[in-house]
Amino acid sequence: MADIEQLDAARAMRRAMLGDAYVDSVTSDPEPAAAEFQDYVTSMAWGVWARGGALSPRDRSLLVMAMTAALGRMDEFRLHAGATPRTGVTDEELDELLFQVAAYCGAPAGVSARRALKDVRAAARQDTKEGA
User: Fold this and answer.
1) Is 33 exposed, middle or buried (0-12, 13-18, 19+ CB in 10 A)?
2) Domains in the chain: ranges and CATH
3) pLDDT at 58
4) Reported pTM
5) Which of 23, 39, 59, 70 could form a disulfide with 105 if both were Cys (CB 3.0 to 4.6 A apart)?
């Protein structure tokens, strides 16, 4: 696959998993360096999602959340936890994931991720109430 085709596939996967509103918000900066940075991030991070292989988007989502929680990257953890309706990860799977994080990465990582998940779920409930 040509580089531009790979980037287009990565862009499409990013939009499918995170939604148009989020992607539009982070790619709207007109500065050339910002656009180049977004293409780089999209190519590297989302290119691996779009490459196919044995892992489903659901599996990749679980892995990304485990890794971001383990690394203490709570902004990214929140982003991906909020995308679970699009990735196919269930609430029960995400709850179980946090036990794994706490056991293998330490209680502080698990506790931080649990707090972040609580915030994500509260925001989702609020959005549902406002949309009703």
Assistant:
1) exposed
2) 1-53 (no CATH), 55-132 (1.20.1290.10)
3) 96
4) 0.91
5) 70
